[in-house]
Hints:
The chain has 123 residues and is an all-alpha fold. The protein contains 4 helices and no strands.
Amino acid sequence: xxxxxxxxxxxxxxxxxxxxxxxxxxxxxxxxxxxxxxxxxxxxxxxxxxxxxxxxxxxxxxxxxxxxxxxxxxxxxxxxxxxxxxxxxxxxxxxxxxxxxxxxxxxxxxxxxxxxxxxxxxx
Length: 123
């Protein structure tokens, strides 16, 4: 059973594989990292992993945002080009106002209708 327990521990320990990394860090940067770690009650290695992970997440989010903005710009540009070629459909402000007025009227009519109330079955 002892062997089994040690194998289980070994499997758990190796479930999240980490690779050691060794590099030089300027003294001022190391102090900033230590201050960061102490403020969050983390070890230096935990703090460093957190800082790196957060920074990489931020970079990825910025990339995704840039891709979205690029897609949005392309869509707007294509719409503008269709409009310039005469393929676009325009709507007057009066038509927009009429659509909103009709929608508001539907809401008012629905609110004015009496709602059916559920009745209790008598025993």
